[in-house]
Amino acid sequence: MNNNSQPNLEDLLRRYEQAMSEGRPVYYDVDELEVLSDYYLSNGKRFESSAVIEMGLTLHPNNSSLLLKRATLYVEIGDYKHALHILDRLPEREDGEVLLLRAEVFLRLDRKQEGLDLIEQVMRSERLDRVQRCLDVVAILTDMTWFPLAIDYLQDTLKQYPDNQELLEELAWCHEQEKDYASCITVYERMLDLDPYKADIWFNLGQCHFNREAYNKAVEAYEFALTIYPDDQMALLQLGHAHFQATRYKESAVVYEECVNLDPENDIIRVYLGEAYEKSGQLDKALPHYEQAWTLNPLNKDACVGMAVCLMEQKVFGESLTWLDRALKIDEEDPEIWVYLAELMQDLELREEAFMSYLRALSLDPHQPDVLASMGNLAFDDGNYAKALSLYEAAREMDPALPGLNLFFALAYAKMDQTDQAMTYLEKAVAVDPKALDLFREIMMEEDEPNEGANTPTDSPS
Questions:
Q1: Is the pTM of this model over 0.85?
Q2: Which pLDDT tens digit goes with each residue over 212-241?
Q3: Are 219 and 236 contacting, i.e. CB atoms less than 8 angstroms apart?
Q4: Do 173 and 143 touch, CB atoms closer than 8 A?
Q5: Most exposed of 94, 101, 244, 414 (fewest Cβ within 10 Å)?
Q6: What are the respective helix, strand and coil percentages of the chain, to the nearest 5?
């Protein structure tokens, strides 16, 4: 019987299901029963597949093929002990499929060495196609998430079959699961040397470069993929993301525009486009896309936040507050929204409300050194320099390299007349950014002029 013949399968299914619905017995040979069982199992219908096998064993008692199918079904549902009990009854103990299933059962039952010994036996067998047995073994190992061992078997088999596409694809995938993107890239480049016109491999190569933050190389790979298959919307979207991550916001906007034209009802892509225009300083172009994204999906909080940020930049504070309120109604547990609200409160000179919003953000995500520093700046502006120092210290514990932190320390110590400490931190700030000295002087001069003889470090640090 030709198992791959769709008309035969359709006729077989029709006859079987009609017989079942009428409750009348029908004879099927073993090949037909295997086809029916495989069909139901491949479509996630384990109960129906099991029913076929049970009927088959009634018609063909102790048939090895059907018993193996029953054992496979037990493995599918995680009943490994019953599977092993059936496998022990099979006379074909050395059959490749039986060995593989037994190996998987041993591994699942934590009988690791016995399972690995059987796998070695399968790999040494001369009666089985080596590529296929390697792929079967790899399927078991990857299902157990034993990717390093799977990689070993793949690399060993590739020594004999270096150009086999299936082996190379599996090897690349295993490297990717291990987040070994450098090795993954090597495999994909090897595949492209064999066939440079595989768009999916160019796309996968781009993904690996993207994950390594090599965005320029990712762009190149995505562009090759699109050259081969221009209708690949995922490759187009990833091309936009790669440009965005490389801070080429105008280029990313051009690509996202193409994505929007292909899928105008997609609110998420419209947010991407809005972000690209926002980052490139084109706020007037960003706003309509954020608003359209919200119109398409009123629960899109990123669209609300995008509107709020753009309006805040344009100093339209009242409308900005409205959009942040909408965002919080969608998700009041998002710390980023509370940070934006704090910044808006500062713009509105509502300092206490700003501080409370920062506190709320920290309660949702305590590891935010930039928020602690911002709270320190609020305390500094209120003249509470000791509190500012305490908050700066907390920020430094989380991120010693937080930009601007040395300058903040210098200013706070200067205000507390601790000149030596202020000079120490000012020197550190100037070493990173020479403009820090001018900024230090500017902020100090915003306060009242110091009394004659006051000890404030306004000279350039030596």
A1: no
A2: 999 999 999 999 999 999 999 999 999 999
A3: no
A4: no
A5: 94
A6: 75, 0, 25
